[in-house]
Write a structure and sequence with these properties.
449 residues; 0% strand
């Protein structure tokens, strides 16, 4: 315990916090779009709210893969920055733009073709009929969001974190305003209902991408990289290097978020009210998760810096100090969920049945806060030392080999219903946290530098 308060750890707490808090707010911005959609659509009814939940279950699954792939650039940029390799980072900037733009197009097409799949999951047909057109508009924002994320991860690898935070907060405020105008028809706008929220999200994400590009292109700090960029040539080896980190990172997110997305389907077999409650509880839990993922991104940069400096002790201290920080943060979140379990749902829905179910789910969410924080920081710290393959296998086993099967058993064989689904998710998250923490401790002791 004494070593955790040593000067080395205190220095790392401070250093990581200064890097992390803009990342936490920036990461929060990604999920706040769907949180705002859930809250504001809930004011017009439970069925539209269930439709948003169903559409988001597929959309977010693809979205987080795109975000995860962009994460592959960050540790490479951080390592090159530590050694002042400007040519390497110029090449990384160019390939980040190319890869993430192409990825955005591919994911857009994939979602467009996949949206009719929602008809195959035995959901309430009224909910499905509302969800498909909602999803088809939401996917328009995939391309600008991937471009934004690629540029964001490059700047964060250089420890420029504040601007992405400012842009993300600004775009979320714009999204809230547009939701208010377009869902309810205020200030002379047409009343689009739930469809207004997806158009608001699309517009705000275009603004995000444009603002981020203009910042990176015109800021003097990045001129040294732009002058060496030639988009006529593409390095296959560098592309493979980025994707070798990015694709497994994306799959790690897919396995976790995919488990929660499939849980939406399972809860939909129970009732639209249960599905709405699941989405509300998931939206609230996603707020703390995305903030923890900001700490994870900071861990990736800090550990990547120490890897570039070939400092094994620095790698371990940077990683473990972030584990301590996320433990404290998520413990506070857990207590808050329990204390305010009857209040938080009322911001999203007014139906007593939905509020009661959500309150029960928030108690379970409180129990998995620490596990969720530790596993996401574990992924970030391991990504910083370029260890992504085994962590990807761990997430696959924890969520799809343990979490989801147990969710089904608890919900439908043990008759715990919606609570059973969340018991299984709690079990999967806890297993992932234990294994990823062990993996970082094991690898960081033996890493060759």
């Amino acid at each position: 315990m004494k070593s955790l308060l040593s000067n080395k750890y205190i220095y790392n707490y401070r250093k990581t916090f200064l890097l992390a808090y803009p990342l936490m707010l920036s990461q929060l911005g990604h999920i706040m779009v769907s949180v705002v959609d859930t809250a504001m659509v809930g004011q017009i009814g439970t069925i539209p709210q269930a439709a948003v939940a169903l559409a988001n279950s597929l959309y977010i699954l693809v979205l987080v893969f795109g975000l995860g792939v962009s994460y592959g650039i960050t540790p490479l940029v951080a390592a090159a920055d530590s050694s002042k390799n400007y040519l390497e980072n110029a090449a990384l900037l160019k390939h980040s733009i190319i890869i993430n733009t192409a990825l955005g197009i591919i994911l857009f097409l994939l979602l467009f073709l996949a949206s009719p799949v929602l008809n195959l999951f035995n959901q309430d047909q009224v909910v499905v009929d509302l969800a498909i057109p909602f999803l088809n508009v939401m996917i328009l924002g995939m391309i600008p969001l991937c471009i934004f994320s690629g540029l964001k991860q490059f700047t964060e690898g250089l420890s420029f974190t504040a601007i992405a935070m400012v842009i993300t907060i600004g775009s979320n405020l714009l999204n809230i305003l547009l939701n208010y105008l377009m869902i309810f028809g205020h200030w002379g706008f047409p009343e689009y209902g739930m469809m207004g929220s997806c158009w608001a999200s699309f517009i705000s994400r275009i603004v995000m991408a444009i603002a981020m590009f203009l910042y990176v292109y015109y800021n003097k700090a990045f001129k040294v990289y732009w002058k060496d960029i030639n988009f006529k040539t593409i390095s296959i080896s560098l592309t493979k290097k980025i994707l070798a980190l990015g694709v497994p990172s994306g799959m790690q997110w897919v396995f976790e978020v995919g488990a929660f997305s499939f849980a939406v389907i399972m809860v939909g077999w129970i009732s639209p009210a249960a599905q709405a409650a699941h989405q509300i509880a998931l939206s609230i839990a996603a707020v703390t998760y995305m903030m923890a993922s900001g700490l994870s991104a900071a861990a990736s940069v800090r550990v990547g810096n120490q890897l570039g400096l070939k400092n094994r002790e620095g790698i371990r201290i940077a990683g473990f100090s972030t584990f301590i920080m996320v433990f404290v943060f998520m413990s506070i979140a857990a207590v808050s969920f329990v204390l305010f379990k009857n209040i938080l749902p009322t911001f999203f829905n007014k139906e007593v049945n939905v509020i009661n179910i959500t309150s029960s789910l928030l108690v379970i969410a409180a129990f998995f806060q620490i596990s969720d924080g530790i596993q996401v920081v574990g992924l970030g710290a391991l990504r910083g030392i370029k260890d992504v393959k085994i962590p990807t296998i761990i997430t696959l086993i924890a969520y799809w080999g343990i979490g989801l099967p147990m969710s089904y058993i608890f919900a439908f064989k043990c008759n715990y219903g919606t609570l059973g689904v969340w018991y299984g998710l709690l079990l999967g998250l806890t297993m992932a946290a234990i294994l990823l923490f062990w993996r970082f401790n094991y690898v960081s002791k033996r890493i060759l530098i």
